[in-house]
Amino acid sequence: MLTAGVDLSAEPKGTALAVVEWLSGSAILRELRLGVSDEPVLEIASRVDKLGIDCALGWPEDFISFLNAQKDFSTPHYFDGGMDWRRQLSYRETDRHARELTGRWPLSVSTDRLGLTAMRAAGLLSKLARSGVTIDRTGAGLIAEVYPGATLRLWGFDTQGYRTSAESRAALLANLLQSAPWFDPGDFDEHMVNSCDAFDAVVASLATRAVATGSYHQPSQEQSARAAVEGWICLPTTNLNSLVA
Predict the structure, then answer these.
(1) What pLDDT, on a 0 to 100 scale, did the predictor assign at position 69?
(2) Is residue 89, in this structure, part of any structural domain at all?
(3) Helix (H) / strand (E) containing 125
(4) Which of 35, 78, 102, 208 has a Cα-to-Cα distance from 235 of 20 to 30 A?
(5) Is 106 left (phi over 0), alpha (psi -120 to 50) or beta?
(6) DSSP assignment letter at 237
C-alpha cells in the first residue's frame, strides 16, 4: 500500500508532500518534497491508495447560509451577532468533534487565515474530480482530511513547539522513531527536522494509513450529512504501532 500526505499551504512555498510505502510489518518513506505545486499532488493521487490533505476541505454549512443571506437584504434577515452565534458560523461539525477528542479547537476555516489555503484545497478537489476521482469529504474515498498535530497528540507525543523549533522537531522525531522502530525515514530525517512542513507531510501520510485501514473516528449517522459538505477530520482510533498490525 502507498499513502501520501500533503501539508497544504496557500502557495507552493510552504507545501510539502510525503509518500510512504507500507510493507509487511514495516513502512518506508519513499518521497518527501518541498515547494509543491498542484501538479505533483494530482500525479501522486493517480498512483497511491489513499491521499491525506492537512487542510479543511469545506466550510461550515451555517457560514455558507449566512453568506448567501448577505446577497439580498430586500428580504428581512435577522442575525443574532452574539458570540455563540459567531462560533456556530466559525466551526464545522468536525471541528467540534475534534475539540471533544483533543481538547483543542482546530483553526477556523471561516475566520482564520486557513481560508486562503482552503480555497486552494477546493481547487485541488475540483481538479481531482475533473480527472475522474470521486470526492468524498467524509474520508471514505481516495481523499481524506487529516490533522497531523492532533494525530500526534492522540498517539501520545508532546507536540509543544515542534512547528516553530527545529530542536523540538528533532526530539519529536527521535521519540517517534523510538516508538515505531518499523518506520524507516530513509534519507529524509534531516528534511523533517529542518522543515515543519515536511514533518507534517510525513505525519499526514502516517495518519492516512489509519484512514485507509478504517481505524479512524468516522462521522456518526447524525453527523454524516454535514461531514459530506463541510469535510471531516479523520483522527485515528488506534495507536501508532497498530498501523503495521
Answers:
(1) 82
(2) no
(3) helix 114-130
(4) 35
(5) beta
(6) S
Convert the pLDDT of each residue in 3-18 to its tens digit. Answer: 999 999 999 999 999 9
Q: Per mean pLDDT, which range of 29-43, 85-99, 169-183 is the poorest?
A: 85-99
| Domain presence at residue 168 | yes
> What is the grid cell recorded at 245?
498490525
Which stretch of DSSP H or E encloses residue 140?
none
DSSP state of 149: H
* Residue range(s) defining the domain that contains residue 43: 2-60+94-244
Decide: helix, strand or coil at residue 87: helix
Q: Which residue has the cell 502507498?
A: 2
What is the model's pLDDT at position 238? 95
The CA dihedral of 202, 205, 206, 210, to the nearest 10 degrees, is 160
Q: Position 2: which residue type? A: L
Q: What is the pLDDT of residue 20?
A: 98
**C-alpha grid cell for residue 156?**
501520545
Amino acid at 81: G
Whether the predicted pLDDT of 74 surpasses 70? no
Total domains, the chain:
1
For residue 118, what is its C-alpha cell?
482552503
CA triple 244-28-241, angle to 5 deg: 25
pLDDT of residue 76: 65
Judge if pTM exceeds 0.85: yes
Q: Does some domain include residue 239?
A: yes
pLDDT at 79: 74
Q: How many CB atoms lie within 10 A of CB 64?
A: 15
Residues 89, 2: Cα–Cα separation, whole Å: 36
Give the whole-angstrom CA distance, residue 45 versus residue 122: 15
